[in-house]
Amino acid sequence: MRFSHLIQINDPLNPLIDPLSREQLWRGLVYRAENPLPFVLGLDECRIVVRTERTLRRELHFGSLTVRDRVTLDPMKQVRYETEAGGGLPASSLVMTIEEPGADELVVRFEYETLRRTGDAPSEEFYNAFLRKAYLEADIDTIRTIRRLVVENLL
Where are the domains of the chain? Predict the structure, then answer.
């Protein structure tokens, strides 16, 4: 399954939305990679097992389930998550890309890819629709959390 959507960060036509700078947004996306607990529901612990200038290898603990992934940072542009298959879950990826479609506009493009589930088409279709909605809500919450962290001067 592939799925993508945009979350608008700055809208010059809507004065009710406090604008974020590209730097603030980038720091928030990096913070999510380094400390996902405030962003990921059900996550108990995240251990960074390897860190380089542009990559993180992490172990995420959800109760007894351990998920391993690699995060690649393309500074000020993109964060890529590549999750290993394991614990009954397929391999998957998430790419968050900062885009500027116009003057004073910022959006984040969220792109998901998950290996196909096996099974009958109606249940797979239902499962994929559920995932799309869950991903969208999680991404809206991610931006909401970044905004809160900026207001609280934590980024």
Answer: 2-151
Which one is the CATH code of 2-151: 2.40.30.40, 3.30.390.50, 3.30.565.10, 3.30.530.20?
3.30.530.20
Q: How many CA atoms lie within 13 A of 111 on its CB side?
A: 10
CA atoms within 13 A on the CB side of 27: 12
Look over the chain and give the mean of its residue pLDDT values, rounded to a whole number. 92
**What is the predicted pLDDT for the residue at 124?**
76
pLDDT tier at 84 (50, 70, 90 boundaries)?
Answer: very high
**Euclidean distance between CA atoms 123 and 155, whole angstroms:** 42
For residues 53 and 73, give the distance between their C-alpha atoms in angstroms, rounded to a whole number.
8
Average pLDDT over residues 128-146: 94
Q: For the chain, how long is the longest CA-to-CA vector? A: 49
Strand ranges for the chain from DSSP E: 2-10, 45-51, 55-62, 65-74, 78-83, 92-99, 106-114
